[in-house]
Each structure stands twice: as structure tokens, then as C-alpha cells.
Amino acid sequence: MTGLCIFIAALVLPTLSESGKTYLPTWESLDSRPLPAWFDEAKIGIFLHWGVFSVPSFQSEWFWNSWNNGNPAAVEFMKKNYPPNFTYADFGSQFKAEFYDTDLLADIFKDAGAKYVVLTSKHHEGYTNWPSNYSWNWNSMDVGPKKDLVGELATSIRKRTDLRFGLYHSMFEWYHPLYLNDKSNNFKTNLFTMSKTLPELYEIVNLYKPDVVWSDGEWEASYKYWNSTEFLAWLYNDSPVKNTVVVNDRWGGETLCKHGGFYTCTDRFNPGVLQKHKWENCMTMDLSSWGYRRVAQLKDIITINKLIYELASTISCGGNILINAGIRSDGRIDPIFEERLRQLGTWLKVNEEAVYSSVPWKFQNDTITENIWYTSKQLATSKAVYVFVLDWPSKNILTLGAPQPSSSTKVTMIGHNATFQWSKLSSSGGMNITFPYISPNQLPSMWAWVLKLQNLNN
Fold first, then answer.
1. In a 3-state reduction of DSSP, which class is residue 117?
2. Residue 117 pairs with which residues in a beta bridge?
3. Which residues have C-beta within 8 Å of that of residue 33, sequence separation ≥ 6?
4. Nearest to 326 by CA among 292, 295, 288
5. Which residue of 20, 21, 100, 432 is surrounded by the most CB atoms within 10 Å?
6. pLDDT band at residue 20 using 50, 70 and 90 as cut-offs
7. pLDDT tens digits for 225-240?
């Protein structure tokens, strides 16, 4: 009971933040908080879905819900592979994480070029990947790995990299009795919120000091049921990460794409046009699931070309990309996911100038040629516009409608030392850029190429 009293006190005793402003538990006040600059500059994060659902690793991370609701494929899977009285809780002892090498994972994420990582602390099944005081006998210390999975990864990330560490947390749990009781009362009671969800949130923030709190599982009830604004006021005013933390928009059924630090709007949100508010494209390398699937085939996995397209189109429109990998129950990341991440890292080592700390240009994609995306950056003496060329141009001539070149415009390819020849398309703007003949072993990248335009009129 002592822990519950402490977190309730935190709700009602806000103090002055270091910024000199006290944020009130209202959306008007909370939404006025500037987003910490590191998040927009970072551009790329890694998302990790991991939990007891990684043991059956069938269909998706929603397997328990699917099986419980009588999905024929899920029912047949259990009938063929498990005894009649087997319950979902019995998977807990099989979740062992015996090959969980957090130093290796940290190195992979660093080599991928990511700037932050978000680990699942708890999914909708209710199992916590840390030894929570509020999840008795359904957490990673009591059942399964006998480890603090969150703490071990946080330590390795901070010891071996400069990545920011973040945590995903589901607000609801499908079958928790207190949640089901509140739900049956039309959420006029909030025993589950006060005894489970909020204590967990305070616990993970105080223990692990995440720079991202990625909320989910909010949609069945109002933010008032979840006491979201009270928690966020504490997070912004008094928490140990009050000056660096960022949050998303999943804090109640009416908050998605309306309130919070950055917007996610929908899973795999990639609008293709510039957004007025900072947003994030959370997407999956397995095109069909967030959790690990043993039956996934190569055709189900995103190609590196498509991944770079997602990155380019996202950051051109002002977003960040959060690239998800499902982790095996033994703690390993699948080799195909590792390959995609390392391929991305190889590409970023060449083209990072056009990605990190970039800002959208006045055009996001080109007005003539498809699969062309733009970013920009203020350099020491001029402004550079970066052109993401996802397909090598036919006959080595790239036609662009958006740029308005000047007589001193310079065109180069990042990672290559040649200056490209160009000609004006018309008196109103646009340009034709001639790509030189480059042998494959001299190409700076295997998959996509970035041109750097300097001294444009626009």
C-alpha cells in the first residue's frame, strides 16, 4: 500500500519544472510543452515486441486474444501441439530468454544507425518484462527468464551506445479481472487504473528513466479513466526524465492524433504529405505481425529497398520512423531482421548527412518524377537540399520539377567525388541532371542514392 500512496501523492503535488513552467493536468497545458529537440533530430528508432506471446509465436502478438475468441487457426494450432488443459499462462514458464545477449543487441541497433530503441515493457497480455511490484507471479523475474529483461537492455544500451532508451507500455490488459470489472461498469470505476496501470507507469519511469514512454492499449476508455493527464503532468514536472522524455498520443480513446508529444495516428502511419505536428511512423519488418512468427517466410519481410523508401518518405514529411522487430522467446533477433538493420546502417553511414537533423524542404516529393523525396539542412554557408533517388534514372538522366536552379547551383552525390552536370528544364524551374557512368564497385550505395543540391533559387 505504501507504493500506491507515493504515486497518488505524485499526482496531486506538481512542482516547477526546470524549464520554469509548471504543466497542469489539462491537454491545453500539456500540449504546450515543447518536444525535446533530440527526438526530431534522431529520425530513426528501433521497436522491439517481446513477451510471452513470443513462445507460441503463431499469428501475432495478439495470439491469446485470438485463441480465446475461437479463431479457427489458433484453436487448431493449440489442439495439434498442446495438451487439452493447457492454458495461456502455461506459456510463461517456456519464456526463458536463454540467449538474451543485450550487448549484442545494443551493438546491432547502433550499427543500424538508430538513435533510440523502444522495448515492450508490457503488452496486452499483462506480463511484465521487469520484476514489477504490481504484477505478482506474471513477470520476468517470477516466471520464465528469472531476469529483469528491461533493466538488462537499458544497461547495455547506455553502456555501449549513445542511443536513447524508451519503453512501450500497454495501459489495458485483455483479461485482468479488475479491468474487466471496470469495463462492465462502463468505466465509472477505475480500480484497474489506480492499482495496476498507473503504479506500473510510475515504476518504470523511476526505475529505468526512459526517454520515450510509448503508450498503447488505451482505446476502450477515456483519458479520464486512465488519469492520463495527471500522469503526464508528473512526468513533465517532477519525473527523473522531465526535461528529456517524449510521449506519443495513445492516452485515451479520444487522444489519438490529437494530444500528446508526437502523433502516431495509426499503426504504420505514413501520410506522404507534410504534417503540422511531429509524428512517427511505427512500422514492422515482418509485414504481417509485430511479434515474432516462426512461420514467417521471406516474402513476408520488408526488402531493404522498401525500408529505405519508408525512411525517405517519412522524414521528408517531418516524421520519425520506428522500425519494429519481433524477438524470439529465447532472446535472439532473427537473422533476417539483423540483416535488414545492418543493411540500413551501411546505407546510413554514407547518407547520414541527409537524414539526421534534417528538416522538410518546401517540397516533400518531386512534381514530375516519382520515387523522389527531399529533405534540407542549413549548412555553414548555404542551405542544402537533398534528393533521395530510389531508382536509378533511365538513360542516366534524372528530371526534377521542384528545384529552381541558379547559375551557381552545384549537384553532387553523397559518397561520390564527382560533380554532376545539369541543365535547366524551363524558364519557370526544374532541371535535368546527368548521372555519370559509374562502375558498380564505385557506387557509394547499393540501394538508393542521395544528391546534394546547393545554391538553388528556392
1. strand
2. 46, 165
3. 21, 23, 236, 261
4. 292
5. 100
6. confident
7. 999 999 999 999 999 9
The set of cell numbers assigned to 378 is 542549413
How far does CA 347 lie from the centroid of its chain? 19
What's the CA gap between 217 and 112, in Å, rounded?
A: 29
The domains found in the chain, sorted by start residue, are 2-352 (3.20.20.80), 372-456 (2.60.40.1180)
Return the number of other C-beta atoms located less than 10 Å from residue 76's C-beta.
Answer: 10
The Cα–Cα gap between 329 and 213 comes to: 23
The 10 Å Cβ neighbour count of residue 32 is 11
Radius of gyration (Cα) for the chain, nearest Å? Answer: 24
Q: Which of 100, 129, 212, 126 is nearest to 167 (CA)?
A: 212
Tell me the three cell numbers of residue 217.
Answer: 492499449
Instruction: Give the three-state DSSP class for 171.
Output: coil
3 state SS of 221: coil
- Give the list of residues 6+ apart from residue 349 with CB closer than 8 angstroms, or none: 113
C-alpha cell at 377: 539542412
3-state class of 278 per DSSP? coil
Full-model pTM:
0.94
Write out the DSSP string of 99-111: T--HHHHHHHHHH
Burial bucket for residue 246 (CB in 10 Å: 0-12, 13-18, 19+) = buried
